[in-house]
């Protein structure tokens, strides 16, 4: 993996995820943060939530990037990119629009808030 100077600015849990060989070397820090926030939202909802609730929660965050405030684009990204990657790692399962937290990955640490 090519080390990037921006890696040192990431929290330890996200650096561990970025270093995971199962992820693409092109994974962006914003995607890692989004997945961590997604897991945090699932955890705060008792481990289960519909995709629409996760989209609303992520889009409503005060520090959400502008592109994530567009709910349609964010939903597409979650359904086609983030959730499949988390499913492949055994962290979540999704069925008929609902997402269930299976087991928080080793790299995940709950976010404050």
From TrEMBL:
Annotated ranges, domain DUF7344: 33-96
Name of a matching Pfam family: DUF7344
Recorded superkingdom: Archaea
Name of protein: DUF7344 domain-containing protein
Lineage per the UniProt record: Archaea, Methanobacteriati, Methanobacteriota, Stenosarchaea group, Halobacteria
């Amino acid at each position: 993996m090519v080390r990037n100077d921006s890696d040192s600015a990431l929290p330890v849990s996200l650096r561990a995820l970025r270093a995971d060989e199962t992820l693409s070397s092109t994974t962006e820090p914003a995607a890692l943060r989004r997945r961590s926030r997604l897991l945090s939202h699932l955890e705060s909802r008792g481990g289960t939530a519909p995709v629409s609730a996760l989209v609303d929660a992520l889009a409503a965050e005060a520090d959400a990037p502008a592109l994530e405030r567009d709910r349609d684009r964010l939903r597409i990204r979650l359904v086609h990119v983030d959730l499949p990657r988390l499913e492949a790692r055994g962290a979540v399962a999704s069925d008929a629009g609902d997402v269930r937290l299976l087991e928080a990955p080793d790299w995940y640490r709950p976010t404050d808030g």
